[in-house]
UniProtKB/TrEMBL annotation:
<dbReference type="Pfam" id="PF01168">
    <property type="entry name" value="Ala_racemase_N"/>
</dbReference>
<dbReference type="InterPro" id="IPR000821">
    <property type="entry name" value="Ala_racemase"/>
</dbReference>
<keyword id="KW-0413">Isomerase</keyword>
<dbReference type="InterPro" id="IPR001608">
    <property type="entry name" value="Ala_racemase_N"/>
</dbReference>
<feature type="modified residue" description="N6-(pyridoxal phosphate)lysine">
    <location>
        <position position="55"/>
    </location>
</feature>
<dbReference type="GO" id="GO:0008784">
    <property type="term" value="F:alanine racemase activity"/>
</dbReference>
<protein>
    <recommendedName>
        <fullName>Alanine racemase C-terminal domain-containing protein</fullName>
    </recommendedName>
</protein>
<dbReference type="Pfam" id="PF00842">
    <property type="entry name" value="Ala_racemase_C"/>
</dbReference>
<dbReference type="InterPro" id="IPR011079">
    <property type="entry name" value="Ala_racemase_C"/>
</dbReference>
<dbReference type="InterPro" id="IPR009006">
    <property type="entry name" value="Ala_racemase/Decarboxylase_C"/>
</dbReference>
<keyword id="KW-0663">Pyridoxal phosphate</keyword>
<dbReference type="InterPro" id="IPR029066">
    <property type="entry name" value="PLP-binding_barrel"/>
</dbReference>
<feature type="domain" description="Alanine racemase C-terminal">
    <location>
        <begin position="222"/>
        <end position="313"/>
    </location>
</feature>
Length: 336
């Protein structure tokens, strides 16, 4: 692992160390996150809305702080991987639309209680959803129906959509939107175009009736696949990390403590260093670290230890959510 030297001013670094109360912490620039969302949004049609994907605790960055900042800046739609992730956002006071990608029958109580929108692939789930709400004398809330156009992970087959729509109508379940997910939007334009064509063909009759549709993750937005539909769903690209000079690690890595070799030009032993660089070509960019480990950037970020405080930076101010009288509350430590 290489390290980069920080370029932040020493007074703001002192403030960060004071807040984190640890010599190692994660510095998360909320303005950079917002900037990235806005850049991605600028690549879409004017009517297209952003649904920010905050899976895996916002890929390790802390979903509550990220969601709060985005809500305060006009983002009204979020998606998470599990019902428990959605519950964490609701318990932290996020009141806007939250879609859960990985919906299972066991989650239905949490989905109902916290008003989370399920992603549905089977008539059996539609029946369960309707029954659950009818039994409680509640109006049945909307669902998102997912169509598998080649990712082969979740979703009904294109030829099953008609039955899914019919069942939803019979059970009085509003359909918020129809979606699919691209398998290789960055790597393979031909496959992605085929997935998009199949999706648009499949949903055409319902789109004509006003049902909303969405397909694009961040790579697809950048490549221009489905960035003109009703929503886009960027994930990993909304998080960015900063650059600097490289220093070699010496000795053993001990959990979140490491030793780096500084040359004679470094005289200030209190210098701070970035572990990950936001310049994709740097050896310590998340992308290159993931490549070296044989994994994907999402995994590198979401494995960042919950022990490391997240210091959020916005408008020149720093804060660590959950610090009460200088200590983390137990529940905050859990949800990080
Ligand atoms: C259904 C769905 N949409 C969007 C995304 C965001 O993808 P990306 O991080 O490539 O932008 C994900 C992430 O896993 C996903 O599962």
């Amino acid at each position: 692992m290489q390290m980069d030297m920080a370029d932040a001013s020493s007074s703001s670094l002192e403030e960060e160390f004071r807040l984190a109360q640890r010599s190692s912490y994660l510095r998360i620039d909320l303005e950079a996150v917002l900037h990235n969302v806005r850049v991605l949004r600028s690549l879409c049609s004017s009517h297209t809305e952003v649904m920010a994907v905050l899976k895996a605790n916002a890929t390790g960055h802390g979903s509550v702080a990220i969601a709060t900042h985005l809500v305060n800046n006009g983002i009204k739609h979020f998606a998470v991987a599990t019902a428990a992730e959605g519950r964490d956002l609701r318990e932290a006071g996020i009141q806007v639309y939250i879609q859960v990608f990985g919906t299972s029958h066991e989650d239905v109580d949490i989905l109902q209680k916290f008003q989370l929108t399920p992603t549905v692939s089977t008539p059996a789930f539609l029946r369960l959803w309707a029954t659950k709400h009818r039994n409680a004398n509640l109006t049945v809330p909307p669902v998102v129906i997912k169509i598998d156009t080649g990712m082969s992970r979740h979703g009904c087959q294109p030829e099953e959509l008609q039955q899914m729509m019919k069942t939803s109508e019979e059970l009085g379940i509003p359909v918020h939107s129809l979606m699919t997910h691209f398998a290789v939007a960055w790597e393979d334009a031909e496959v992605t175009q085929c997935q998009l064509d199949l999706f648009l063909d499949t949903v055409r009759p319902y789109r004509e009736q006003g049902v909303k549709v969405h397909v694009a993750n961040a790579p697809a937005i950048i490549r221009g696949f489905g960035a003109d539909l009703d929503f886009v769903r960027p994930g990993i690209s909304i998080y960015g990390l900063p650059p600097g000079d490289e220093l070699p690690v010496v000795g053993r890595v001990s959990m979140d403590a490491i030793t780096v070799k500084m040359d004679a030009s470094f005289t200030d032993l209190s210098s701070a260093f970035y572990v990950y660089s936001d310049v994709i070509s740097h050896p310590n960019s998340v992308t290159n670290i993931a490549r070296a480990l044989g994994t994907i950037p999402q995994e590198v970020c979401s494995r960042l230890s919950a022990r490391l405080p997240r210091v959020y930076v916005t408008g020149g101010r720093h804060h660590v959510p959950g610090l009460r009288n200088g200590h983390l509350r137990h529940s905050d430590q859990r949800s990080w």
